[in-house]
């Protein structure tokens, strides 16, 4: 289960993430968003024998894997990575409908692997940049609904701007993801005079017991670990 | 028009016949009940997209963009980028295809059928043409 996928994650997730939920993972650059999701997925898939799909819209698969290896993470043989870079380079003048492309990619992998149950999109910001802003809220509602209908537990990674000890969505107006998502996991940096600590906080998790305290997030030998509350 | 596929000869003869036939069929599509015919072609291409991709790449290596254009030109069917690129990546992982950047072009990867892949392609095409032929035996009037 997800709450046991990372050492100490059960400190913040007291019950498991309900399957088929759409979870937003937000944070500024360097807060380990991709690492957290990759760690949760790879550990879960190795244990459960299910399949997962990690879609990377900006980083190449090679660059993403280099970063994961630096965190001590290895790719599960059941985790499939789809890299949009070739597609984006070759179709740069055509502006394909990326929401439809993403749905087709998911359908392909679900057809190929019967028990594909987890999906991650890295990142939602990139998807927005490649998607028409017209009817964004409606389109994202249908996109999230599509993920739920397919019974996929989905992680939407979203980069936010970081100012001091507060975290802001760079443009909260018209950004519907916080309302549409079933859960929000916030990652951030807390800066003291001579120290910076990474933290994890569950801001929202529908139908699942969770703590709301900020807990320290660290990189250990075999991946990430959640330590005690940092208040 | 006879749309049956010859099961005789080696795989590459069959492939050429299949391609030639498909081009003729598309050109002569007006002879058929347009809408119904299009739906059949659309279904056949979409449900056999991997074999279509392999048969085209076995004849000529190309990138995902050109492959989608080629399928559209030959069959008048648009296969979404979201279906074609995962096929290319999966076949590459399985060692059936290999990808290479073009000379002086680091943006576009061309896909080639590998030596191992050639055997797989021949087997798949052979199975495909025999299955179509079998179906045609009892649906043909």
Summarize the structure in words.
The complex is a heterodimer of chains A (231) and B (141). By secondary structure, chain A is an alpha/beta fold. Chain A has a single domain, classed as 3-Layer(aba) Sandwich (Rossmann fold). Helix content of chain A is 31%, strand content 30%. Chain A has 7 helices and 11 strands. In chain A, the strands form 2 sheets. Chain A has a 9-stranded mixed beta sheet with strand order 3-2-4-5-1-8-9-10-11, with helices on both faces. In chain A, a hairpin with a 2-residue loop joins strand 6 and strand 7. The relative contact order of chain A is 0.23. About 3% of the residues of chain A have low confidence. Chain B is mainly alpha-helical and 141 residues long. Helix content of chain B is 65%, strand content 11%. Chain B has 6 helices and 2 strands; from the N terminus they run αααααββα. In chain B, strands 1-2 form a two-stranded antiparallel sheet. In chain B, a hairpin with a 2-residue loop joins strand 1 and strand 2. At the A-B interface, helix 3 and helix 4 of A face helix 5 and strand 2 of B.
Shape category of chain A: globular
Structural class by secondary-structure content of chain B: mainly alpha
Number of DSSP strands of chain B? 2
- Strand percentage of chain B lies at 5-15%
Number of helices of chain B: 6
What is the terminal-to-terminal distance of chain A? 27 Å
Biggest sheet strand line-up of chain B: 1-2
How much is the average pLDDT of chain B?
82
**Pair of chains with the largest interface and how many residues each contributes:** A-B, 18 and 15 residues
Percentage beta strand of chain A: 25-35%
Mean pLDDT, all residues of chain A: 91
**Cα distance spanning the termini of chain B:** 12 Å
Assign a percent range to the helix content of chain B: 55-70%
Uncertain segments of chain A: 164-170
The helix content of chain A is 25-40%
The CATH architecture of chain A:
3-Layer(aba) Sandwich
Order of helices and strands of chain B: HHHHHEEH
Tally of strands of chain A = 11
- Class of chain A, according to the CATH hierarchy? Alpha Beta
Structural class of chain A: alpha/beta
Strand order of the largest sheet of chain A: 3-2-4-5-1-8-9-10-11
């Amino acid at each position: 289960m997800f709450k046991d996928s990372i050492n100490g994650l059960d400190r913040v997730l007291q019950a498991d993430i309900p399957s088929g939920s759409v979870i937003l993972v937000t944070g500024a650059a360097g807060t380990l968003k991709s690492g957290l999701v990759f760690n949760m997925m790879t550990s879960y898939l190795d244990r459960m024998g299910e399949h997962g799909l990690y879609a990377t819209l900006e980083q190449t698969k090679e660059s993403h894997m280099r970063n994961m290896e630096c965190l001590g993470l290895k790719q599960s043989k059941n985790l499939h990575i789809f890299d949009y870079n070739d597609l984006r380079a070759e179709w740069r003048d055509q502006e394909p409908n990326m929401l439809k492309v993403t749905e087709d990619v998911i359908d392909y992998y679900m057809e190929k692997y019967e028990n594909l149950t987890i999906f991650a999109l890295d990142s939602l910001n990139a998807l927005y940049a490649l998607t028409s802003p017209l009817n964004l809220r409606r389109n994202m509602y249908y996109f999230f609904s599509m993920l739920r209908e397919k019974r996929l537990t989905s992680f939407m990674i979203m980069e936010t701007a970081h100012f001091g000890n507060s975290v802001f969505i760079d443009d909260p107006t018209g950004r519907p993801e916080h309302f549409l998502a079933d859960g929000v996991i916030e990652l951030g940096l807390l800066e003291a005079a001579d120290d910076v600590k990474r933290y994890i906080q569950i801001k929202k998790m529908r139908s699942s017991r969770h703590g709301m305290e900020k807990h320290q997030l660290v990189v250990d030998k075999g991946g990430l670990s959640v330590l005690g509350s940092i208040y | 028009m006879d749309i049956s596929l010859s099961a005789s000869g080696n795989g590459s003869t069959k492939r050429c016949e299949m391609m030639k036939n498909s081009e003729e069929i598309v050109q002569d599509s007006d002879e058929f009940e347009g809408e119904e015919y299009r739906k059949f072609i659309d279904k056949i291409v979409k449900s056999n997209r991997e074999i279509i991709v392999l048969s085209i790449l076995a004849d000529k290596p190309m990138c995902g963009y050109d492959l989608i254009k080629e399928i559209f030109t030959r069959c008048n069917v648009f296969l979404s980028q979201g279906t074609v690129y995962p096929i290319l990546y999966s076949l590459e992982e399985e060692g059936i295809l290999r990808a290479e950047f073009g000379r002086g072009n680091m943006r576009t990867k061309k896909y080639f059928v590998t030596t191992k892949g050639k055997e797989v392609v021949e087997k798949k095409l052979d199975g495909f043409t025999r299955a179509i032929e079998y179906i045609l035996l009892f649906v043909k009037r």
